[in-house]
Structures are given as C-alpha cells and as structure tokens.
Design a protein that fits this description.
By secondary structure, the protein is α/β, with parallel strands linked by helices. Helices cover 27% and strands 19% of the residues.
C-alpha cells in the first residue's frame, strides 16, 4: 500500500466470488485509468496492453470511439496522453450499423468519424481513460480488473458501500477511500467455494 496522504495512490486488492465481479462493471462503464503509450495506435494498445488477439478484436470489438469520435481504422487512430477510448461490440439496428468499424453505413456518420491528424506526442509513459460497454464488460472486464484499474476514491467508496461485508474487509471500509483522487483497484475471483 502507498502512503496514506489523501492525494496519494492507494492500492486496493479484493478477492470476490465470481458472481460479484459484475458489481464492479459500473466502474468499467464510467471509465477508468490505464497506462498507454502516447502515439500508440489503438490496435497496438488492444493487442499489447490488453492482450487481445487480432481475431478477438475483429470478432468482438466492432464499435470503437476515440475522444468521442467513431474509429474505422484502429491501426491509424493514435492515442494521445489523456485520451478516452470506448469499446463495444456490434450494436443492433441502423445506429449500430452506422457506428460499426468500417461498416457499409459508416459514411453516414462522417461528421463524428475520427480522422487521422497530427500524431500525439509519442514515447514515455502516459495514460488514457478506457470505457467498456455491452458484452465487452463480461468478456474483457474480469481480466482487466485482475490487472488493476485506476479509479477515483470517492467513486469506489460509493460503490463499496453497496457491497456485502465480506467484500469490504480487505479495504479498511469505504470511508478509508473517501477524498482520495487516485486508487488502484485490483479485483480477482476468490478461490474459496461457497463464499457468499
């Protein structure tokens, strides 16, 4: 654990029953901090940082937004320091067809499509905000939670207040997180069968 000052990062490690992992999905939807190299293509980030295969990306991540703009080519869309990247599966209906990466209807959304422009400053350490939606929560969420996500302490404290006591023991309670700007949260599935 890091120093206890209110601005310091605290690491919170929780082991919860598998059925409780979904309790943390709201944090994944709101957005969480992950390390990323500025100037890295989105595709490289998905493969190298998240450990996804090209086949998984192609089949399961059909909708990608970078800084609020729909991405068609994940190999030319570059991450900047502080970028926001949103990932989702193919969504239903015409809107889903329009937002799909490189889809037939993509020209209908030209006003909100990400365009390759000036490359963000490359090199060095950085971070982005990542958001997961739809089935990407269930498919990617558990592995990402186990690796660790950066979250706001107040948001985490609010979420923890709704969890059962057995999930709170390792944290020192929700009150210990309030006022902290940065918390590194790691959530894994507990090995104890029948833990409730």
């Amino acid at each position: 654990m890091e120093p206890n000052g209110s601005g310091a990062t605290r690491t919170v490690c929780l082991a919860v029953p598998s059925e409780r992992l979904a309790c943390f999905f709201p944090l994944l939807q709101r957005g969480f901090a992950v390390p990323a190299r500025p100037g890295s293509p989105v595709g490289a980030f998905l493969r190298e940082e998240l450990g996804l295969s090209a086949a998984t990306i192609e089949a399961r991540i059909q909708t990608v937004f970078l800084d609020g703009r729909a991405v068609d080519d994940i190999e030319t869309a570059l991450l900047g320091a502080g970028s926001t990247l949103a990932l989702a599966p193919a969504m239903p209906g015409l809107m889903g067809a329009m937002l799909r990466r490189g889809g037939y209807y993509a020209p209908m959304r030209s006003g909100i499509t990400h365009r390759a422009g000036a490359a963000p400053q490359a090199g060095g350490a950085g971070g982005i905000t990542l958001k997961l939606f739809g089935t990407t929560l269930r498919e990617l969420g558990p592995a990402i939670l186990a690796r660790g996500i950066g979250v706001d302490g107040d948001e985490l404290a609010s979420l923890l207040e709704s969890l059962p006591e057995d999930c709170l023991r390792a944290t020192g309670g929700a009150a210990a997180l309030e006022g902290r700007k940065a918390v590194l949260l790691k959530v894994t599935v507990s090995r104890e069968a029948g833990q409730g």
